[in-house]
Amino acid sequence: MLSRSFTTLGLLAFGTIPATRAYTLQTTYNAGNWMSQFTVEAIADPTDGFVTYLDQGDAEAQGLYSITNNQVYIGVDHTNTYNPNGAGRNSVRLQSNQAYTHGLVIADFAYIPGNDCGSWPAFWMVGPNWPNDGEIDIIEGVNLNSYDTITLHTAAGCTPSVGSGGQSGTSTNPNTDCGAGGGYNGCSVQNNNPVGYGTPFDANGGGVYAMLWESSGIQIWNFARSAIPGDITSGNPNPSGWGTPVANFAGCNFDQYFQDMNIVFDTDFCGQWAGAVWGSSSCASINPSCNAYVASEPQSFGNLYWLVNSIKVYQ
């Protein structure tokens, strides 16, 4: 998404997957404490989307934000039509109260937003001074894209390489400064897992995204429900045994470009990405206007929600 630290117990060899070490659980976000640990942000969308982010009271009253069956539900309005020239579709944007510098973030999802024309869902982390404090997009996609796009956004000067051991994803703009275009362009890796994003991810029972952020690199893994490593389930995560990550960013001074980052969820519509590529997508054959489509097709967005089992942050 364009838009208080804890100390690691040791540094990695530069750009490599970490050797075996113990991680200590710092924070667990789940149905028991979620509402007190995340702030609902009723703000104007910084990426010019056709969206209205509700405050917590309205989001709960409209059924867009709740604790359901011991899971966290974060959805969008899929009932009402809107004026395409007016305020956008109602949605929810959340930010964690706690910020982090470094860590192992493990997010367990029962369901993530499906693939829908006009949609732009994201699970990401961002620092207080964008782009100088960085942004890490862990789950993000637009329209009917069938893949997750993992992206780093920074100030000018961070040009990562693929770390030792490689990655299973595809760098879509290799050897690119993540700060190009004022930070908006970013440097991205496409997740090639056919059940790693959207509707296929959900049909496969959901799963886990894990992000390891250290001084020497940022790695992201994606596991289907049936393939979650036992050490994650047992609460003793060991990234050195997880195999090749989807994204393996190395070769940048990460401590200079990433710090004090909060966890963010949002589901946007149209705007600077989904709207910008609308004309080149198959969605344009349904309606030439992204805003007009989102305004008039509420029934399309019943599958556009997050259902979170937990997020655990280790140091």
Walkthrough of the structure:
- The protein is 11% helix and 33% strand.
- The chain has 315 residues and is mostly beta strands.
- The chain starts with 24 loop residues before the first strand and ends with a strand.
* Number of DSSP E strands: 19
Biggest β-sheet description: 9 strands, antiparallel
Helical stretch count? 7
Distance N to C terminus: 25 Å
SSE ordering:
EHEEHEEEEEEEEEEEHEEHEHEHHE
Mean pLDDT: 94
Helix-strand makeup class? mainly beta
- The Cα radius of gyration reads 18 Å
Low-confidence stretches: 4-16
From the spread of the alpha carbons, the general shape counts as globular
Beta-strand content estimate: 25-35%
Fraction in helix: 10-25%
What is the secondary structure topology, with strand pairs?
Elements: E1 25-29, H1 34-37, E2 38-40, E3 51-53, H2 56-61, E4 65-68, E5 71-74, E6 89-91, E7 93-100, E8 103-111, E9 119-126, E10 135-140, E11 149-153, E12 161-162, E13 170-171, E14 187-190, H3 198-203, E15 207-214, E16 217-224, H4 230-233, E17 247-250, H5 254-257, E18 261-269, H6 271-275, H7 290-296, E19 306-314
Parallel strand pairs: 3-6
Antiparallel strand pairs: 1-19, 2-7, 4-5, 5-19, 7-18, 8-15, 8-19, 9-10, 9-18, 10-11, 11-14, 12-17, 13-14, 15-16, 16-17
